[in-house]
Each structure stands twice: as structure tokens, then as C-alpha cells.
Design a protein that fits this description.
Layout (H helix, E strand, L loop, with lengths): L17 E2 H27 L4 H24 E4 L3 E7 L2 E6 L3 E4 L7 E4 L8 H13 L3 E3 L1 E3 L3 E4 L3 E4 L5 E12 L2 H6 L4 H19 L16 H16 L4 E13 L1 H40 L7 H16 L16
Helix pairs in contact: 1-2, 5-6, 7-8
Length: 336
């Protein structure tokens, strides 16, 4: 079976463009030069000068006008945190990152292909696509924003490590780090980021339990920083091919799926009650022990094992009961 040849990755090559102000002055100066040459050629023709000289003047005027148009076509501006990829007849020539007014070869492409249409079939999406075509916005520009962007995922329904269905959503902060990889190594890098981000969120959710991990296990609910760091690492590994840098990722929504939410709520309430009871019992045992030790140390009363056990039972009932105790007053002796 023949082996497939994998295309090599493309890496950014930063280049410096010429200043656009000097070229703008030259282009503006060429226009009156062309006009003067045409006027001079017409006057020369009227005085009977040879046609060769007239044609030469007209040719010079045409060259001047074409040169001015070419210079105007090569002018472009870049804002801070913006870059332009230079593509000449399908060949990548470099990336300009310096903000300002620049001039480059007018034959450099102004777009990097057509934007692919969506296949979801919704009327709203079709209307947006039609309006883009009418306005000429369907072409993907060679300018790329290097600013930080947010991707807010939809609420995804996945199974956690224990198989419980949970709902999870996250926000991912990302920016383009390598413009060449973003354009040439993936198809529509913004869509690629969205798809890979949702895939990574699903993967992370399946690696951790929602809560109640064993032996200090990290959970989705309790391990916020650890889970976010692991999500960032997985996202970065997936998006390296697209030249994208992940700045931060955080879970923004986490809950049990509606079909098990009520059952899990009852379990959480039961666990909370058990934990509270455990704390109450530990405190009550400590208080009973202190009371018996104080009675014996100060020789207030001497109790045999049977009466001691009865006293412990009574104190525990009073301290651990959910309602106020109603004591029975003994008017006789301690043993009657």
C-alpha cells in the first residue's frame, strides 16, 4: 500500500514593508507629470513635430498613469495587533506585523480564497451568506487580527468519569500566534478553533468525575485551577497546527443533566446531613468525656459502670437530639 505524503507545516516569515508615505508622494506626483506630458505632446503635434515624438510622449504619460495606479493598489494600512499575509500568485512571501502605512507589491493577493458556505440550511444563515456575496464580503481577507478573542462554547451534554450525564460549558481565550499556519495549515482557522475547543471540553469532562472523587481525586466541581490548566494544555496541543496560542480556558457552566439532577440533589443533601451528624457526634463525645472527667476529678459524685453508662446515654441524647430535651426530675435518690 502506498504511503501518503503529508504536507509540511508552514511557518511564519516576518518581513518589513516599505513606507507608504514616500510611495504615496510619488504616485501623486506622477499624475501631473502624465498630464503635462500629454499636453506637451498635443502642442508638439499641432506644430508639426514628427508622430514618433508624439507617440513617445503619450506612451510616457500612459506609463506614468499605470505606475500611479499600481502604487495606489499597493498601499495598505495595519492597526496595532494586526498583520497582513503576503501571497504572490499562490506563493507565501511573508507576513507584515508592523502597524502603520505601508507599500507592497500591488500583485500581492488581497484575499485568500472564498469563504465556505454553511450547510446547516437555516434561513438566517442563508440570508447572511447572500448579503455577504452582494457586499463582496465572501472573500477571506489577507489581514488577520492578532488580538485576543473569546470563544464561548455552547452547553454540552457529556458523561463524566463515572458515567453520570453532566452539562458543561467553557470560555476559551485565544489569539493567532503564527499567521502562516493559521491560513495555510488549516481550513478556516476560526471554525477549526471552535470545533477543537468543543472536542477538548468533551474530552476533559470525561476524564474527571463531577464531584466526590476518591483519595483526594481532582473533580470537575472542586478542581477548578487543575481542570482549567489541563484543559488549556489539551487545547494547545490540538491547536498548535493552526498557529493558535491559548491564553486561558475556564469552565463557565457545570451541572448535572436534568434527568438525574433531582436524584443527585437528594444524594448531596443526604451526604451533607451525614457529615453534619458526624461533626455533632464527635463534639458530643468530647463534651461527655470532659464532663465525666471533671466530675471524677472534683469528686462531685462516684458512679458505677451502670450509672456511668446511663449518664453517658442521657448526655448524648441531649447533645445529639434534633429537638430540645424534656428532662425528668428525680425527687428521690440517684438509684431510685
Amino acid at each position: 500500500m502506498a504511503k501518503r505524503n503529508h504536507s509540511p507545516e508552514t511557518y511564519e516569515n516576518t518581513v518589513q514593508a516599505r513606507s507608504g508615505w514616500l510611495m504615496l508622494v510619488i504616485a501623486i506626483a506622477l499624475i501631473p507629470v502624465a498630464i503635462l506630458v500629454v499636453v506637451a505632446s498635443v502642442e508638439a503635434a499641432s506644430t508639426g513635430v514628427g508622430p514618433a515624438l508624439v507617440l513617445t510622449g503619450i506612451a510616457i504619460a500612459v506609463v506614468a498613469v499605470v505606475s500611479a495606479i499600481a502604487i495606489f493598489a499597493g498601499l495598505f494600512t495595519l492597526e496595532p495587533n494586526e498583520a497582513r499575509v503576503l501571497i504572490l500568485f499562490g506563493s507565501y512571501k511573508g507576513t507584515v506585523r508592523t502597524p502603520g502605512f505601508h507599500f507592497a507589491n500591488p500583485f500581492y493577493a488581497r484575499s485568500r480564497g472564498k469563504e465556505r458556505s454553511s450547510n446547516d440550511g437555516t434561513a438566517g444563515t442563508k440570508a447572511v451568506e447572500v448579503s455577504k456575496r452582494l457586499l463582496g464580503l465572501a472573500n477571506l481577507p489577507t489581514k488577520i487580527s492578532l488580538r485576543a478573542r473569546n470563544f464561548n462554547s455552547e452547553t454540552l451534554k457529556v458523561n463524566d468519569k463515572r458515567g453520570n450525564p453532566v452539562e458543561i460549558a467553557a470560555v476559551v481565550v485565544w489569539r493567532v500566534a503564527d499567521t502562516a499556519q493559521a491560513i495555510f495549515d488549516v481550513e478556516e482557522f476560526e471554525s477549526y478553533v471552535a470545533v477543537q475547543a468543543e472536542s477538548a471540553i468533551r474530552s476533559i469532562a470525561s476524564h474527571y468525575a463531577y464531584d466526590h472523587g476518591d483519595d483526594d481525586e481532582i473533580t470537575l466541581r472542586g478542581g477548578g485551577d487543575e481542570v482549567a490548566a489541563e484543559m488549556t494544555r489539551e487545547l494547545q496541543a490540538r491547536l498548535d497546527i493552526a498557529g493558535v496560542e491559548i491564553a486561558e480556558s475556564r469552565i463557565t457552566h457545570l451541572a448535572y443533566a436534568p434527568e438525574i439532577a433531582s436524584a443527585m440533589l437528594r444524594r448531596q443533601q443526604a451526604e451533607a446531613v451525614i457529615a453534619a451528624r458526624g461533626t455533632i457526634v464527635q463534639g458530643a463525645v468530647t463534651m461527655v468525656e470532659m464532663a465525666l472527667n471533671e466530675l471524677e476529678a472534683k469528686a462531685v459524685v462516684k458512679l458505677d459502670e451502670e450509672r456511668r453508662a446511663a449518664m453517658v446515654s442521657n448526655l448524648l441524647v441531649v447533645l445529639c437530639g434534633t429537638s430540645e430535651a424534656a428532662p425528668v426530675i428525680n425527687t428521690g435518690t440517684l438509684y431510685t
